[in-house]
Amino acid sequence: MYHAKAFSAASATSPLASSTIPRRDVTNRDVQIEILYCGICHSDLHIVRNEWSDAMPTVYPVVPGHEIIGRVTKVGSAVTKYKAGDLVGVGCLVGADRTCPACQAGLEQFCPEVTFTYGAPDRDLGGVTYGGYSDSIVVDEHFVLHVPAVLDPAGAAPLLCAGITTYSPLRHWGAGPGKRVGIVGLGGLGHMGVKFARAFGAHVVVFTTSPGKKEDALRLGAHEVVVSRDATEMQKHAGSLDFILDTVAADHDVNAYLNLLRIDGTVTLVGAPPKPLGVSAFSLIMGRRGLAGSNIGGIAETQEMLDFCGANKITADVEIIAVQNVNEAYERLLKSDVKYRFAIDMASLKGEQARETVTSRTTVG
Ligand code: NAP
Ligand code: ZN
């Protein structure tokens, strides 16, 4: 075991602060990574503040971060895919049983034994896993991704969650030529959804609550932009869309989007508001419409997405921040005041003196 620098939260109301965390020594199957950048996902904020307490209570202290880009510093003796110096990524998954039907189908995110990058039982060290707001991490090579060298590392970090979370459902529900696709919410996930849906050849309509994002939506690839608080504008799209990807992080009316679907169209939720959404039966039965959900993507599909991004020069639009500004960044994220993803430059951790040492003692929020 060795110690790494990190930023952690001690409770749902504590700010993130400098700390020292344990990491396992490299085993024969592991890759050790110096973290260069880590994106800030809205899930980090939900979890740090224990907003998903009903579904998955947060275990404190928590070190968030699952949009990790770094350089390999060391590999175990059995590692075949990576060598020191490689540019690599780690997303939301660092473990799964690799034998169950979900794993065999390349859907490790649905494995009953899945280990998420932070806040999941740590099978090696005890306690829970710690995420990417840190200067290094050790991960089984199966869960490490190659990052194409043509991609800017900071802009590539959000691909590991926001990228795959939008790429996977857009592929699954066949977003492509001849399809009219709606993207709801132009945040970290939403702006990646726009880029992918456009790259796949779909007609893309963005639904935003922020009139000030209209021009950006068009620049990012939308063909049309609708301010969702304008009922007349919304009505113009009634019954017209094949597929809608809903990325909204807060309470909102999903019926307003179901009503924009064609017969047999689907609204897929990737946003995970803490409270249940009210769904009217009529929104579904009038038009045999579907309401679905999607969770990130498996490892093979994440690599496919990164390779697609390399071939098509797709990265996230990022605002790079120092780790010391992470608490302020969370407040701005809540106000949708980021274009369109924060990426933490982990070089900013170098001068930090840890205010606390995290042991394996934990409390559930
Ligand atoms: P984000 O950057 O904060 O984007 C969310 C966007 O939703 C905002 O930019 C805003 O867009 C819109 N929005 C916010 N509040 C709203 C409200 N009250 N009513 C309507 N629209 C609102 O967040 P993110 O990182 O993209 O994450 C979005 C959600 O997806 C979070 O709940 C996160 O936990 C979840 N998530 C799920 C997965 C998965 O695998 N399923 C993976 C990652 C994240 P406009 O300003 O354009 O309206
Ligand atoms: Zn995420």
Task: Explain how this protein is built.
This protein has helices at residues 42-48, 101-104, 153-156, 162-172, 188-199, 214-220, 231-235, 255-258, 281-285, 299-312, 326-334; strands spanning 2-8, 17-23, 30-39, 59-60, 68-75, 87-90, 93-95, 115-116, 136-140, 145-146, 180-184, 203-208, 224-227, 241-246, 261-269, 290-293, 318-322, 341-345, 356-357, 363-364. It is an alpha/beta fold and 365 residues long. Strands 3, 5, 6, 9, 10, 17 and 18 form a seven-stranded mixed beta sheet that branches. A six-stranded parallel beta sheet has the order 13-12-11-14-15-16, with helices on one face. The protein has a three-stranded mixed beta sheet with strand order 1-2-19, with no helix packed on it. The mean pLDDT is 96. The protein has eleven helices and 20 strands. The longest helix has 14 residues, at 299-312. NADP nicotinamide-adenine-dinucleotide phosphate is lined by residues 41-43, 46, 161-162, 165, 185-190, 208-210, 213, 247-250, 252, 270-272, 294-296, 333, 336.
Describe the secondary structure blueprint for this structure:
Blueprint: E1 2-8, E2 17-23, E3 30-39, H1 42-48, E4 59-60, E5 68-75, E6 87-90, E7 93-95, H2 101-104, E8 115-116, E9 136-140, E10 145-146, H3 153-156, H4 162-172, E11 180-184, H5 188-199, E12 203-208, H6 214-220, E13 224-227, H7 231-235, E14 241-246, H8 255-258, E15 261-269, H9 281-285, E16 290-293, H10 299-312, E17 318-322, H11 326-334, E18 341-345, E19 356-357, E20 363-364
Parallel strand pairs: 2-19, 11-12, 11-14, 12-13, 14-15, 15-16, 17-18
Antiparallel strand pairs: 1-2, 3-5, 3-9, 3-18, 4-20, 5-6, 6-10, 7-8
The chain binds NADP nicotinamide-adenine-dinucleotide phosphate (NAP) and zinc ion.
